[in-house]
Fold this sequence. Notes:
Blueprint: H1 8-13, H2 23-26, H3 38-66, H4 70-84, H5 94-109, E1 132-135, E2 141-144
Antiparallel strand pairs: 1-2
Amino acid sequence: MKQLKWTKAFRKAAGKEMTVDSTLQFAARRNIPVRYNREHVATTLKAMQRVSEIRAKRERVFYKNRMAGNKEKQKAADRKLVAENEHLLPRQRASERIAEEMEAEAMEAEPLETPVVQEAPPRKITRKQKVKQRLLVGGGVENVMDVD
Length: 148
């Protein structure tokens, strides 16, 4: 049988899918009739949710482990591409290169000074005053001043 790249058989053979995991057995169909029980259904639904969480977590870890070395490989491929096609890159003028070198030397020679930050004087905290209102019999609202 020919294994196409999009089939489960190919993905498992190529190590792109988790083949051995205890959470995969829970998805197997069971043909045993069980009498309905409300508590049993509730615990089963909780267990199904927990198993799906565990499976998702394991799949994330599996994927991260599988993709672990890709950044280094991509950087190496990028460096190789730049080295092979260096003649296509724009050349840097000698004056620009000298200016960059002088800036780098100046940065190394000068110790980094931390700027002095002046703290603002503390502000007075003003509280919003609540406006007391009284409902009128005919409808509407009357503002009442609170005199201390």
